[in-house]
Structures are given as C-alpha cells and as structure tokens.
Amino acid sequence: MSSARTRLVEFPATILAAVLNVLDAPMRAMQRVLGVPRIGWMFVAPNLAILGVFTFLPIVINFYFAFTGGVALYPSERPFTGLENLRTLFDCENFLDPSTCNKDLFWRAIYNTAEFALLQVGLMILFALVTALVLNRKILGRGFFRGVFFYPVLLSPVVVALIWKWVLQREGVLNAFLMGAGSSPVGWLSDASWAFFWCIFVSIWAHMGFYTLILLAGLQAIPADLYEAAAMDGATPWRRFYRITLPLLMPNLIVVLVLGLIRAVQIFDEVFVLTGGGPGSATTFIVQFIYQTGFAEAIHQYGLAAAASLVLAASLLVLTLAQLRLTRRNLAGRTGRDNA
Amino acid sequence: MPSLTTLLTATRGRNRLDWTDWLSYAYLLLGLILMFGPVLWLVLSSFKSAAALNEFPPRLLPYGQRSVTVAGQDNPLPLYRAKLADGTMRELAEVRRIGIQSTLVDPKAPDQEFKVNIRDRAPVREFQVAFGNYTEIFEKFSFGTYLWNSVFITVVATLITLLFNAMAAFALSKYRFRGRDAVFLIIISTLMIPPTIILVPNFLVVSELGLLNSLWGVIWPAVATPTGVFLLRQYMLTIPDELIEAARMDHASEWRIFWRIILPLSAPALAVLAIFSVMWRWNDFLWPLIVLSRTEKFTLQLALNAFQGELTTQWHYLLAMTVITLLPITFVFSFLQRHITTGIAASGVK
Amino acid sequence: MASLELKQVIKRFGDATVIHGVDLQVRDGEFVVFVGPSGCGKSTLLRMIAGLESVSEGDLLIDGKRVNDISAAQRGLAMVFQSYALYPHMTVYQNLAFGLENLKTPRAEIETKVQAAAKLLRLDALLERRPMQLSGGQRQRVAIGRAIVRNPTIFLFDEPLSNLDAELRVQMRSEISALHHRIGTTMIYVTHDQVEAMTMADRIVVLRGGRVEQIGTPLDLYNRPANRFVAGFIGSPQMNFLGASAAARGAGLAVTLDSAKREADAALPFERATGATDRVRLGIRPEHIVLGAHSGPSLAVRATIERVEQLGAESFLYCLLEGGERLTVHSPGQVAHSSGDVIDVSLPVAATHVFEDADDERALVRR
User: Fold this and answer.
1) C128 vs chain A: nearest CA distance in angstroms?
2) Are A159 and A23 found together in one domain?
3) What is the pTM of this model?
4) What DSSP designation does C297 have?
5) Cβ–Cβ of B13/C53 closer than 8 Å?
6) Quick one: CA torsion of B243, B247, B253, B259, rounded to 10 degrees?
7) Fewer CB within 10 A of the end CB, N or C, for chain C?
C-alpha cells in the first residue's frame, strides 16, 4: 500500500479506535453494574429511544392533536374539542359528492386516492408480472434487463417527477413526437384526466421494478420439473401458467398487492412535484391534504390535519390486517393444515 | 464453449427462436427505451443552452448558434447564413437587430454593413455543449450549499443508522434478556407506522427539541429504521455464538466484542443497509419539506422542488441540477447493480 | 401400449455431442432399463423420448410414427420424475386428476379413474392430503399414480427410487414390477443401479459416454457381456480381470496368465480373429472361482489372502496374486481360511471370458 493510501485508511481507523476507546470505559462500567445479559438493553437503547421519541410518542400526541382545536402548536395551548375535528371532516350531505361536504378537498382527496390506488396498483402488478415472466425466460442479458427495470426505483421522487415533467411539457418531447406524427400538441398536465393518467403512469414507471424483482424471485422458486411434469401431463402453456405458475406465485402476488396498496395510498412526493395537486384538485391525494392543511396554508390547522392522519392510519391498518389474514389463509391452504 | 450464434438461438430447447421469444425481446427493448429513454433525454437536454431549449420541436443533440469574434466588437457576434439582396447566400455576423431588420457584417471585413430582413437569415448551428449550465448553478444559486446539505444528511444519517441498528440487532440476536422478544416485536411493528400519519406530532416533537430548520431535525427521526434492524439481526443470527464466548474468555468487554468482532463480521449486511440508507436519505422529500423552511438549509430535493416553481423558464439550470441530483445513485447502481437486485429480491420475499 | 424405435438418434448441446447415434427397438409391453454410470446420457435419452429435450438428428418413432416434432404434452406418454415433481399446492386427488383435466375428461370419468389408480397404489386414504404431508414412499406412489391415471402408451421412469432408503427401494422395486405385470404397458426405466436393472428388466440397455455398449436380457448381459465395460458393470462384486497373453493353438487360444507362471493345460475355446498384440484380459466372476482343485478344465492360480469377509451364508476373500494383481473370490457358506493364508484356486474354463486388451476391449466369441 502506498503511503498516501495507508494514511487514508489510517485516518478513519484512528478515529474509530479513538471512539472505541472513549466508549469502552463507560460501557465496561455499565457492564459491571448490569451484568452481561442485561447489557443487551444498553445496546438496544439508542434505537428504542429514537423510536420512542419519534414514532411512539407522536402516535399518542396525534390523538391529542386530533381531539383539540385552535391554532397553537404547543399542546397545552390547545383547547379540547373532542370529536369536533372529525365531525368537520365527515360533515357531508351526500358522501358521494365532495362538493356537498364541509371539507370538500378532503373528500376529493379520498376519492382521488382510492381511484389512484386501485388503478395504479392493478396496472403495476400486471406489468410487473408480465415483466417477471419475460425475465424468467432463458434470454440473453437477463441480469442487464433486470437492472433496467429497477433503475427508476432508485431515483428520488423529485427527480422522477422532473424527468417526466420535462417530457410532458407543452413544448416537451412527447408533444414534439405528436406534432411530428401530424397531431396537435396536448396540455398533458393542464388537463384533469390526463394529469391523473400521468400520475398513475409515472408512479408505475418509478416503482414497477421493485415488485418485478419480488415476483421474479417467486417465479424462480418454482421447481422446473413441475413444469416438465405438467407438460408430460398434457398441459398447454396457458394451462401451465394458470394451474401451476399462478397458484404457486399467489403468496408473492398477495404481498406485492398489499405493499403496493399501502404505498399507493400514501402517494405524495412525485405527484406533488409533477402536478402540485392540480389542475385544481384533480390530482390532490390524501397525504397532500394533510400536508397542506397542517403546514402549507397560511393558518396551520394542526387539529384537522391530525384527524385526517387518523383516517389514513385506519385505512392502512385495515390493509395490513387484510394482508396478514390473506397470507395466513393462503399458507394454510397450501399445506393443508386446515385438514386434520 | 458454444458459439455466439448458438448462444443467441439458445431458447426453448428448440434450435430456433419462436414467436414467444421474439415477443419477449421486443417487450424488453420497449422496456429499455421507456425506462432509460426519459432519463437520457433529461441528461441530453441539460447540456443545451437556454436558447437551444426554447426550440420547438427540440433537436436530439445540443446545438447552439455559432458566434464569431469581430474586430471592433467587444463580444462575439452570432453568425447567420443570410440571403442578400442580390440573391447570394453568405455567412455574416449580426451586429444589431431592430424590429424585423437585421444589420449584418462580414466578420473578415466588418466595415461593410448589410441590411437583411430577419426572415432571410438562418442561424449557423454547431454542436455546442452548454457546460455553463453546470457551473453557473453553483455561482448563481448556492447550489453548492444544497449539495452539501444533502451529502451531510445522507452521510451522517447513514453512519448513525448503521451504528444504532447494528447495536440493536446485536442485542436482539445475541443476548437473552427479559423483554427481548417484546422489544423485537415493538421494533418490527413500527414498520406498520409510516411517517405520513404522524407528521403533525413529529413536527411538534422536533420543534420542541429545537431541531426545526436544522439538518439534525431531518437526521434524528430517520435513523432507527426497523428494516435495518431486521436485516442486520437476520445476518447476525448466523454468526456463531462460540466466537463471542471465546472473546469473553479473552476478557473482552461486550462493547469491544461488538466493535471488533460483530461489526467486521457483519460487513456484507452493513453494506446492504448502507446502500439502502443512502438511497432513503438522499431521496427524502416530505419530511425535509416540513422541517426545513429556510432556503439555506434546503437539500437538493427541496431545492429542485422550490426552483421548479420559480425557474420554469430557466429549465437549463433546473435540468443541470436534476442531473447532479441523480448522479450519486446512478454511480452506486452501476457498480452494485447485481447485489442490489438480488438483495432486494431476497429480502422482499419475507 | 406402444412400441418405440430410435434410429441413429444423436443429441448435441452446442458443440458437444452427448448421445452418439443410438439405435434401439422396444417392443410393445416390454420393460426396458437404461443403465450406466453418471453422465452416460441415459436420462438425456429418456427425456428425448418424453419430448422434454429435442432430438438433434435421427428419428424417434412411437408405434411407427415419427414424433420428433410433436411436443411433450401431445405424445401421450407419462413420466415419473426422480424428484416426483408433485404439485405442492394440490391435493393427491388433484395431482392425479390434473392430467385428465388437461384432456377435458368429464368429471365423473375422472373420479372413476382416479379412484381406480388410488386403489391400485393403496392411496385411497390419502386423496385429500397434500404432498408435503406424505412420506417418501407415498409421494413415490402418487407420482406413479399420476402416470397411470392417464393410461399412457409408454411409461417413463427417471431414477424414481434414488431418493428412497434401501429398504423402501427394495419394496418399491417389486411394486413397480408387479404393476408392470398387471397392466402390461411398455415401460422404460432409467437407473444407475445394476441390481435394479437386473431384477426388473425384460431387456437392459447399457450406456456409456452417450453410446450403447450392449442391449440384451439380464442373463444375456451376465453370461455373454459384449465387452469389458459391460462385464464389469453387471454383477456384484465386480468381475475379476487378469492380464494375460494369448496365442492361437489349434482351434482355440493358449492363454498364459501374468500371475501364473505356466501356460494353461488346455486351449481355451475362444476365437481370435484379429489382434495387434498377444495381450488379452481374462475375466472371471468371483462367484465362479473354485477354492482348491476343480474337476473340469480350469486355470490354476496361487493367491495370498489379504482379507476375509464372512457373512455366514457366503464369504468373500480378497486376495493378492503373484505379480500384484488382485482377485476377489465369492464362496458359498463359511471358509476356514484367514488373512495371510496362501491358497490355490481354480478358474473353470467354462466360466471364463476373454477380452481384447485394445481400445474396444471387445469380448472374444466363445466357440
């Protein structure tokens, strides 16, 4: 090793050694006090502390915010209002028509989110499955193509949104292609339906690769001789897919479906940058509502935002429980544990 | 060693490609164009000058108008190919333009002026890469500050994440203390609590801790990742207990065991977590958006978002900033692509 | 039930040829076993018959019809895989019914056939279980049942018993043989175990390196091996091979063993048409060697016993000959000898085989 490189390695190594030595003494002392088994608490303490302060404590405080009113941030300055915030949110003449609601943006956001989640996840799983099936074949450059579909997953949502915003501009390359083909340019992001479409498209583009990999792993776990046996049993390729691949892939599909839904319901980053929630409120989703209500408007309505968070949390809880139930049932079905 | 043709035609047991293979390759090609195309377009566009970007329909490669220095002029003048009154086409430099009339001179003989209608002249183009886009963002927009903020948060958060998660994973995998399983369950249960549902109270907590508008306000809430603890614990379970017992016999303190034995042996899992953590922190958006409201504290992601409102007419800067923002991840990706894809697949199928 | 014919079948993987021109005719209802060491191509050959591998060159005919280009699903054959390949997410009933469903058989008929196959293989109590809940032997039977239920023209078995323990293997062997007697379908069975081959086959195909070494009935292969490889492969313990030189004498062969100092008394009744050198190998099975003197014409050899294994009903003597060659003797009953003894043994001429010491190691024809 050249002297320059040695110094480069030595420098952080000496820092590490220094840290180690500094902490060694107090940790030894702790060890003497607590004894070896209980020193485990010391190791897990920092992580627990962070979780406690930034996850569990906030969960509790969230309820407090949801049940109090006023504009102060500090809890003691907030008057108790009970279910008032929730009542405001749910104040609707006709639940199916957001414009009859007190907080119409909230309801618009709910419906947008539901529509988005169902469409995006459905389409994305479909594409992920097709891609996984294609990647599972014996093709040249399989590893390369796996990476191709996975690359957008690594990009930050802001970058993803900007990449597509640049393409979808009025004077962007997509319109240029359209004009070259003889049509007229379209205001992709200024039209409500198109903006919604592109939110779905961009979201699929950015996340599909991750789910493709999970499904691909599931496909590769199916032993090859099952397909051979099915071929000997006279099964056509379609029947092999339908009776062997699909049932054996079902656990992965369920996982992917629920993970996808959980993520889709919380969509914010890329949509916020791509459309800002517009045009109007066409692409405003629930997390943006929370953000806007609690932080972006002139008056921060913490109580309302917290109440909306509770609604979101409830739906996520439902999804997670559904996943647990579905996985357990599917697993039991596969091993016949239900039959004695 | 089979020949290339054999490799190419190695398909479904038959020695020809059948239609499903053609379809597969076509699909993959389409996927390639769709996945990489927009990114490449972004990168290409980022090297175009503002004027080139204003062109519609856009050209593929960066082109700019040639300019030429002319005696008697301080700045270089743009070069045009103009049709003169007598019908000849000449390459001339434009001195000034008033309304629809352009005044052009021959760069080699600048005394003689030609007056030409602007419709009778077309810019002379050449391949021009606007490197200025990349340098000017640092001069004009404190881009360096944003870059530093992102790097600081990412590096520091990753280091702390690795340390805290490794410590917790060590405790949960190698120690037997009362309440250990409960702790593990608690940590895993936080996987079900995404940050989006506790934005408001977290804001209060961070505010009370005096961490608003501080980079540490972004770092501290993010370091206790349950995924990280899970990942590391799985790996540490495979480290033989005998190593730890031998070290204890050697009078090593538990802390020393952690540092000198467990951490080095967990290097592969630590590397995977490091990659994840870098990705998560670099790409963080919503929480920094809430916590950091002063522009000098913005991360790259926040800066991009802020500028795309103000700078919609200055895409050439915005594009350059975007490219810089996606560079680190791209480097990590190209070097570690295989590890990342296999790691994700393995951990995804829990 | 159907006949099978392979005509100069060749299989290449890229530039490597793994099956070099195999010719074979299997009669309707025969039980043929492909046997050979690992890598000899027996599984590849079976998979080509099944349609799971393509045929590079040559013809594959089932009942006289060329099936090279017909897909596996449409050949009407059934295969029992080494790993059983049972569908883990289906019950035993569904596993058995799957093939029939693919043929769009009506439900009532499926029920009858599945029940019949289940009864035949003693699976009727297990129909609602899943493969994960079955023992190795039970899974094996389900795999066979899945094949039976479709009434295939030919049954293919790919080392089905390798994953079972020894005792189960013996039991399943006789079950499969009994099955063949009962339903009489043509069966092609691949194994590396020559005992399985000998006990189950009507005819055996011995393969090595992608080539057919010999085809014949079990006793044919035992009594008249065509070359040294087949002679050494069939029979346990392995045949003894002793170096010797041979010269024509009258109507036979005068053979001098390397380990016996003098020429044999009488000429051995073997034909030697060609022969670059006078070197040959003499083969004699351990069970044919006689301790002491033998009444008929034989070769006498003196051996030093290295080790004796006495199993009560039989004994094995592992000996060293002068000149360093080894000799294994298999004697019925118990023997009085022990390690270190020097004994005289006789190699009856009637039980000897002579092989060329050249590349093909062909057996010399007995007159």
Assistant:
1) 8
2) no
3) 0.79
4) S
5) yes
6) -50
7) C
